[in-house]
Each structure stands twice: as structure tokens, then as C-alpha cells.
Amino acid sequence: MSVTLLDGGMGQELLARTGAEPTGLWSTQVMIDQPDAVRDIHADYFKAGASIATTNTYAIHRDRLENTAYASHFEALHLQALELAVEARDAHGSGLVAGALGPLGWSYKAELAPHSSKAAGLYAEIVEIHEPVVDMFILETMSGVDQARGGLMGTRNTAKPVWLALSVDDDEGERLRSGEPLSDILPLLSEFDVAAVLLNCSRPEAISQGLPVLSESGRPFGAYANGFTSIAESFRRAGETVRSLETRVDLGPEDYADFVDQWLALGATIVGGCCEVGPAHIMEISTRLKRPT
Domains of the chain: which residue ranges? Predict the structure, then answer.
């Protein structure tokens, strides 16, 4: 079985390495202040065995930049993030660059996202910027059906593969964070000809619950979990910082790779890491994937 190994998280890794204070702009602010750190993290994931660099564009949305000093820098910030990922990939000598399309409104709160009819245009604007550079797109942390629909509508005009990554409830992995059944996503996969479907930025235990639902899609599927104890309710308010999220102490590289082994046994062919999952975790997964079966 051929397995694609994604990279790990960017935002939390940036904060850990730079000591930067978390802000509502999260990884975007760190990239503005210390761009070399973004390139270095991409490079370290490639060295660890990842075959894809996910661009640091998750949080670069007009609604995030509104009322900040960077409201007019929308396109420039996207181009900077794209350049940093490409530079790391080219220095490594192989690999792909995936354009990250994060959630509008706020992470984990699908009800804060604009309706799909409006979201489509906002995503299409980003796709147009990324199109000449990236090899593929990943819609990340989509937490509700209409939110996912808006992202997929915005990618309709690209010729590049589009992967859809969904965030599920940390206690009920067969439900999206919106409360809707994860199975409600399945019709969208055919409607928009999604190239692969994943679960992301949820507890690994919840992902193990939800993957059997994705296996019913008949499409390549996989997962990349976060390393938070849970998503605090306080973080779900727009503008809140990651200071309100608590990192698990029981999810080292070997522990995390054990979960990945479970996902592979369920039929997953795409694996990696999200927030609080770093290069050491990716290296452990890579090492296991290279072992003779």
C-alpha cells in the first residue's frame, strides 16, 4: 500500500520555536516578523520524511486581516507564504506544495462562516493567487457541511487536485463540530469530485472513530490530528488566541505514530499531523512506513 506522508503543524511550531506571543493573526503574524522560521519548518518536515509542504496560508483571510495593519497586504502575504514553501521544496529537491485554505469566520465554528454562496467567491480569490504555484489544494478544518460546500465551490475552477479535510467533534468522531453527521459530507465528495477526503485538527481518538465513515466514500482518505487536550469553548470566539488551548503531555512521537498505525489499518493512505504535531512525530511515522511489512 502506497502512503502519502503530509507535514505537521505550522502555527504552534512557529510559536514554540520563536517564542512569539500568540495573536489573533497566529502564524501570519510570526511569518511577517520572522519569515525564515516558516521556511525552516517546511524544510524540517521534508527532512523528516514528509512529501508535501502545506503553505502557511490557513489564516490569511480578509476577515482575519480586517481592522489590522495588514488589511491591504492580503495578496502579498499569500505570495510570501507560497514563496517560502516553494523555496523549502526546491532546496529539498523533491515534494509537492499544497495551498492551504483554512476556514472563514473562525476555526471549529462553522456557524461563524459566511454562507457558501458568499464563501465561494472569497475562496476563489485565494485559489486564483495560488493556482500558478501550488500542486494541489487542501481545504482545512471544515467543521460543517455548508462551510465545506463553500470551500469546494470556491475551488471549482482549478485544474489542480482538491483535498477536503474535516474537523470532527472531539468526543463523537462520527459528527462534525457543527453537530451534523459526518456522513452528510459524502454526497459533496461526488458532487465536486474531491480527490481525497481527510479528518484533521481533532483529537486522534475521535479521528479513529470517524475514519470508517470516510472509508465509505470510495475515495482516498486519511487524517492528521492535533495534540490539544480539547478545543476550549473560549477559543471558539473569533479573535481569541491559542493561549486558551492546552497541549497534551501523552502524545509524543511514538504515541502519535501508534494512532497513525490504527488509521493505516483502517485503510487510510494519507497521514500527517496538525497543531502540536511536529517534525519529530513526522520522522517517527516515516521511520515506521519504511519498515519491511
Answer: 4-277
pTM across the whole model:
0.95
pLDDT digits (tens, 9 = 90+) for 139-179: 999 999 999 999 999 999 999 999 999 999 999 999 999 99
Q: Is the dihedral of CA 96, 138, 165, 46 positive or negative?
A: positive
Class of domain 4-277: alpha beta
Alpha helix ranges (H) inside the chain: 11-18, 27-33, 35-48, 62-65, 74-92, 116-130, 145-154, 186-191, 204-215, 253-265, 279-289
**Do 173 and 205 contact (CB within 8 A), yes or no?**
yes
* Among candidate residues 11, 6, 5, the one with its CA nearest the CA of residue 276: 11
Of the candidates 96, 134, 137, 135, which has an alpha carbon nearest to the alpha carbon of residue 7? 96
Give long-range contacts, CB 8 A cutoff, 24+ apart: 68-73.
68/25, 70/25, 70/28, 70/32
> 224 near 273, Cβ under 8 Å?
yes
Angle at Cα 138 formed by Cα 135 and Cα 144, nearest 5°?
Answer: 160
C-alpha 258/C-alpha 25 separation (Å) is 33
Cα first-last separation, the chain:
10
The radius of gyration computed from the CA coordinates of the chain, to the nearest angstrom, equals: 17
Element (H, E) at 200: strand 196-200
One-letter amino acid of 212: P
Residue with cell 467567491: 121
Q: Which has the higher per-residue pLDDT, 245 or 115?
A: 115
Taking the C-alpha atoms of residue 28 and residue 120, their distance in angstroms, rounded to an integer, is: 22
Inter-residue contact 104 to 114 (CB < 8 Å): yes
- Cβ proximity of 78 and 57 under 8 Å: yes
